[in-house]
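The methods section describes the discrete structure representation at length, but only in general terms. The central task, working out the structure tokens from the amino acid sequence alone, is never made concrete. Nothing conveys this as quickly as seeing an actual entry. For illustration, here is how one protein appears when written out as sequence plus structure tokens:
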Amino acid sequence: MTTTHFHSVSPFLGVEDLSAALAFYRDKLGFSLAWEWGEPAEMASVCRDEVELTLVTRNDAKPGGISRLYLHIDGIDDYHAQLLAAGVAITVAIADRPYGMRDFSVTDPAGNVLCFGQALPTGL
């Protein structure tokens, strides 16, 4: 019997303005464009390390609404400082949380919430 192993997840995030979303993810959050689809583009993927996010124009997509992601990263303080230097508004301040994570949140131009977190060292 083969053991099932999940390798990654690539969530789809709805956006109103694909160009603005791509600029935010590339220029502010440090992701790279992986691909675009459609003419004009109505879907695109951005990657950073092992994380891939697919951005798709909302247009008539149902249901509408906002997505919320939690991305586990290393070097959270350095990344937080990079985002501040890039002018990204931090919507939830960085802090050590009682659930064992140091995290903070930002909101993309379409209202999707991205939480970045790093596990706190155990045994403190």
Remarks:
- The first strand starts at residue 12 and ends at 15.
- The helical segments are 18-28, 76-85.
